[in-house]
Structures are given as structure tokens and as C-alpha cells.
Specification:
disordered C terminus; seven-stranded mixed sheet; alpha/beta; single chain; five-stranded parallel sheet; flavin adenine dinucleotide binding; about 20% strand; about 525 residues; FAD/NAD(P)-binding domain
């Protein structure tokens, strides 16, 4: 019998909880003693669900789909797909391919819904499809002169390709300069606080993936002949159907945490790792501080970290080490940029946005069908607006008569916007909705909640360009695995974060030393190809 190995997992988000699950499934507790440290008192990281006065907020919006069948099967194993219509499906007469024998969401809470994705751009008071489609409505909303400008600009981009040394050129090569100026330039600067010309093109390749005018044309042709894409099919930004937990993404991760604990995982909440101790080239232990300020040292054989690389390297520097952290490594880690996030939930009776689509929706009057509305207007700070009613009817206490929305803002921790009081932040959100004529006045708002999220978006500029000098050093600790969005400083989707954990656990179980498979998840060469049709 082999001796049990002790594993310390830092972070209770998708990556950390997936790692614990993969280690402990199939009686894994016989081989591994797993302890998970979570700095907050909730699970899911930015994939959590926030509850407020009977309503629920999805922080950032999370569509459940993946090109990796392992992930799709994993999710379905945790929360089975719906086998009967949800509340809004019934009321609106909507039909999905229901799962035979699946649970009824009207009777069971542990269920994954099938949802139809609608996301649009709101520009100068008009709605545009996202990604931009070449429809008559698009041309009409642009106006003849602008449409011609966009068309000729795109034709020029086919002939004259710019070197993809930055995100600006990446977008222009795929959409033309005119469309880039309308829909990408201002929004990207709003999101990152930097002009696209100083952001790496790698961010575009990871987030926009294969989307271009040609992809849009192909997608339009598919719709014309009646082909519908299901969850996991096609390019990421063109997915039309996705899965979604009845009570938001946090429900799934809360369920996984319970399963992990049932399988033998020790989970400690409100445990902030402040020091990482190294000995003889390996990580020996971590020191965490609890809610009362008490320090505890936790030894381990293997360490899986999803904490921000910036914090991890500083924790190693603060710990006991036989070899001090080099100044260059600290400089790279401390220079890694992040974009922080504030969301404001507002409850209203109605929005001044008419549903001019042929998609039926709840509400009186009916609400627009969007999950997200991208706000390209640079005169307001809000970047996106979520309509939680459309994610799941079970997120809203009075879904028939109230609209529960989330205004998403991008900022830097410590700046003036971040430091606003809740009242100031809520008042600004209301003023901006009034300015955009989405609501009429402050009196329309019945309830509100503001939530701040640190390090929500790892950014691709500054010392990010030197990450290739930092990752080999981190990998040099043979028993340390960096996983997840912040753990790798990569703008991963939720499924990518999970796969990094799956790959790390596979290495641990098989004894593989090379960690390139863990780092190669969600890179151009590995993950972005469209799922093959069978």
C-alpha cells in the first residue's frame, strides 16, 4: 500500500473545486488527503451567485458550454439536464430538446436548464446583433452611408493585412477599420482602461477566437438553411444554446463543494494564504490567516494554486525559502495587470426597451430577450447590462412583473470608481440608465445592490509580455501546479479553468513532470479549433 499524499489546494473557484473532485472521485481519498483553502466565505470565485432580497445575481454572466466533452459530461453529472419545461418555457410555449428522464425544474432544484442565447450591442439607441450579423436590420440601423463605409473598409482589410502585433490590428484584419471603430475600439478601452493598440493580440485570439466577417457569413448561411447550433458546437461567440444551473453558476459550485467534502476533502473558508514556504526546491507548506487573524501553517506534498500569480509569488517571497525570489521574478509578478469589476443590480418594473424581435419573453410589457447587452456608448461608463430574467426565471423572485438587471463596470482596485460608496455607485448606475433612456427616472428603481470583485480580469499588457520568464520558474517547483484564470494569468473561460485542473490532476496521478499540458489549455494551438461535426 502506497503512503497517502497530502494535497493543498488554494482557491475554491472552478479550478480548485474541480481539482479536489478529480483527486477524490472513485475512492481517491485512499491515496490523497486533500485540504482546500478558500479566502472568502463563498464558492465559485467570479462564477458565484450573489443572493439579495430574494433575487440572485450572476457575477459576470456564465454560459455553460464547452468544446471539450469531458467538461460537458462533468457538468451534466453534477446537475442533470432538464427533462421537462422550465417556468418560462411553459408560459411562453418554448421548446427545447429535453433530456429523457431528466428532472422537472418546476419540482427539482438540482437541474441544468437549456437556454437560448441572445446578446446584442446597444449603439446610438439601436440594437445590433452580437457578433455583428449582416442582416437588413444591421444595415438599416447603420444607415446607408455608414454601411457602405463599413463594407469598403472590410474589403480593404481583405487585401491589406496589418501585422498582428496588437489587439487593434487583430480586430481591423477581421472586421475592417470602420466596424472596429464602431464596435471594438471604445468598448475595449472601456473594458481594459487601455487603448487596443497597446494590448496583446493574444487576448483577441483567446476571446474572439475564429470570429470574423467570414465566420459571420457562414453562420448566417447556416441559419438560412435552418441549422441550429447547440451547446458546445461552433465558435464560442456564435453559440446559440447553452446550459445554465437553475439558480445560477454558484449553485453548481456549491454542489461540487458538498460532493468534495462528502468524498473526504477538508474545506476551510475565510483562509487567506499569506506565505508559501519552500525547501530544497519544492513547496513545503503554506501559511494562511483566518477571519480572526490567526496564522496557521499547513504542510503538504503537492500544492495546486489558483490564487493570482502576483499574490503567489509575493507569498513565496514572504515565506521561508532556501533560495530567495529573484528581483526579476518579483518585478514581473508585481507588474502583472488586472482589471477589477463592479456590478450593480437594479430591480425595476419595466425597461424602456421594446421587444422588437420575434422571440417571446416574460414581463408586462414583455422585456427584450437579451442575456447581455453590450453598451458601446463611450459617454457612459457601464460596459454591459445583464437581464437576469433571461438567464433563468428562477433568479428573479417576481419574474412575471419585475425586471432584475445587472450593470457591469470595469475599473481598477483603488481608483475613484472602485472607492465609491455603495450609494454613490448605485446612483451613478441609475443616472446612466436614465441617460440611455433605458429607464425614465430614479423612481423606477425598487431595489439595488452593489458588488465589487477584485482581479476579475487578468490583462494582457505591461509585464504580461514577460510571463515566459516567470512560468518556467514556477514550474521549477516540481510539486506546484498553477491552474485557473488567475492561477495562470490567462483570460480563461470557466471550462478552460476546469481543464487546467483536470490536466494537473492527471499529471499528479501519472507522475508526469512536464507541465506544458496544464499551461497549454486555451492557447491558439491547442484549444481554439472549432469542435468537429460528426
Amino acid at each position: 500500500m502506497t503512503e497517502k499524499k497530502s494535497v493543498v489546494i488554494i482557491g475554491g473557484g472552478p479550478a480548485g473545486l474541480t481539482a479536489a473532485y478529480e483527486l477524490l472521485k472513485d475512492n481517491g481519498a485512499e491515496n490523497y488527503d486533500v485540504t482546500l483553502l478558500e479566502a472568502s466565505d463563498t464558492f465559485g470565485g467570479i462564477s458565484r451567485t450573489v443572493k439579495h432580497n430574494g433575487n440572485r445575481m450572476d457575477i459576470g454572466g456564465h454560459r455553460f458550454f464547452s468544446k471539450d466533452d469531458r467538461v460537458m459530461d462533468w457538468w451534466k453529472n453534477i446537475l442533470p439536464l432538464q427533462g421537462a419545461p422550465s417556468y418560462d418555457d411553459k408560459k411562453l410555449g418554448r421548446k427545447h430538446d429535453l433530456e429523457p428522464g431528466g428532472p422537472d425544474p418546476e419540482k427539482v432544484d438540482k437541474v441544468m436548464l437549456k437556454r437560448h442565447r441572445v446578446s446584442r450591442i446597444y449603439w446610438h439607441g439601436h440594437f445590433f446583433d452580437y457578433p455583428v450579423s449582416l442582416s437588413m436590420d444591421t444595415l438599416k440601423n447603420m444607415g446607408f452611408a455608414q454601411a457602405m463605409k463599413v463594407g469598403f473598409s472590410y474589403l480593404k482589410s481583405l487585401v491589406h493585412k496589418l501585422p498582428e502585433t496588437n489587439l487593434e490590428n487583430f480586430y481591423i484584419n477581421r472586421f475592417g477599420r470602420a466596424l472596429y471603430g464602431m464596435f471594438f475600439e471604445g468598448y475595449t478601452e472601456k473594458l481594459w482602461g487601455r487603448h487596443p493598440s497597446v494590448i496583446s493580440a493574444d487576448w483577441g485570439s483567446q476571446r474572439v477566437k475564429g470570429i470574423s466577417i467570414s465566420a459571420v457569413l457562414k453562420d448566417a448561411w447556416g441559419k438560412l438553411i435552418g441549422k441550429q447550433k447547440k451547446a458546445g458546437e461552433g465558435e464560442t461567440s456564435l453559440i446559440e444554446e447553452f446550459w445554465y444551473p437553475k439558480y445560477g453558476p454558484g449553485q453548481l459550485w456549491e454542489t461540487v463543494a458538498k460532493i468534495d467534502m462528502g468524498n473526504g476533502c477538508t474545506i476551510i473558508k475565510n483562509a487567506t494564504v499569506t506565505k508559501v514556504n519552500e525547501k530544497d526546491g519544492k513547496i513545503a507548506s503554506v501559511v494562511y490567516v483566518d477571519a480572526n487573524g490567526k496564522e496557521t501553517t499547513l504542510d503538504g506534498d503537492i500544492f495546486i494554486s489558483s490564487m493570482p500569480i502576483k499574490d503567489l509569488v509575493n507569498a513565496i517571497d514572504a515565506g521561508e525559502t532556501t533560495e530567495p525570489v529573484a528581483k526579476e521574478q518579483l518585478k514581473i509578478a508585481n507588474g502583472l495587470p488586472y482589471r477589477d469589476f463592479v456590478t450593480v443590480g437594479l430591480l425595476v418594473d419595466k425597461l424602456n426597451l421594446k421587444n422588437q424581435t420575434n422571440i417571446p419573453t416574460l414581463g408586462n410589457p414583455p422585456i427584450v430577450p437579451d442575456c447581455w447587452i453590450y453598451v458601446q456608448d463611450t459617454s457612459v461608463k457601464v460596459g454591459r447590462i445583464q437581464i437576469f430574467n433571461n438567464w433563468s426565471p428562477y433568479l428573479v423572485e417576481d419574474v412575471d412583473n419585475k425586471v432584475w438587471i445587472g450593470l457591469e463596470y470595469f475599473c481598477n482596485e483603488g481608483d475613484d470608481f472602485w472607492n465609491q460608496s455603495d450609494k454613490e455607485g448605485i446612483d451613478q448606475a441609475i443616472r446612466e440608465l436614465v441617460k440611455m433612456h433605458i429607464i425614465s427616472s430614479k423612481k423606477d428603481v425598487l431595489d439595488a445592490h452593489r458588488e465589487r470583485v477584485k482581479k476579475a480580469y487578468p490583462a494582457y499588457f505591461d509585464t504580461w509580455y514577460d510571463m515566459d520568464k516567470l512560468t518556467p520558474w514556477l514550474d521549477g517547483f516540481g510539486n506546484l501546479y498553477c491552474v485557473g484564470r488567475n492561477g495562470q494569468h490567462r483570460y480563461n473561460n470557466m471550462d478552460h479553468s476546469m481543464v487546467t485542473a483536470m490536466e494537473a490532476v492527471e499529471n499528479i496521478k501519472t507522475g508526469r513532470d512536464d507541465k506544458s499540458n496544464v499551461w497549454s489549455v486555451n492557447t491558439d494551438k491547442a484549444y481554439h479549433e472549432a469542435k468537429e461535426e460528426k
